[in-house]
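re: that complex we talked abt at group meeting.

here r the seqs, copy pasted straight from the sheet so there may be weird spacing, ignore it
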Amino acid sequence: MKLPNIVILDEKDKRLHKVSQEVSFPLSTQDKKMIQDMLLYLKMSQIDEEREKYDLRAGMGLSAVQLGVLKRIFVIVEETEKGQFKNYVVINPKIKSFSEELIYVGEGEGCLSINREVEGIVPRYARMTVEAQDEDGHFYEIRVREDISIAFQHEIDHLNGILFTERIDPKNPYKNAEKMREI
Ligand code: NI
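got the structure back, here u go
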């Protein structure tokens, strides 16, 4: 596999703190290429051999803004079983409903734009229903749960210029942990 030629912005970059714009269709050839590049990059980052070869950090999701493109597009790659990957292409997402139950990643969330250790937990909905558009502009509804629900919320935050570190209370990084379920 050939690593796509993409540069992921670091948290210090101002663009990561801006709100991305709604996308209109049809997508440009450039945007379609960007989506394919993001999907392949994430997949390769999850394959041990490729990750080591290219010195990557494993990642599950990427938003266009992390490549400096301020459009409401993100992708997620989930390894469903060894060597099997499921792609999510999510454009103009809207959260339709969400669970009362909150969860958090016990070991802390990670982000390909944040290149340091971050202490603390981020409250996330355990389940959500999201409406979005695919690469062809077709609307679809998706029900997500657990780690995929967290990944969707993390990426939707990116589209709104929010990094996960901003959702951690610096004075009390494990605030309300007892009210949520760890995954
Ligand atoms: Ni991120």
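couple things i noticed - The two ends are 32 Å apart (CA to CA). Residues 111, 113, 154, 158 surround nickel (II) ion (CB under 6 Å).
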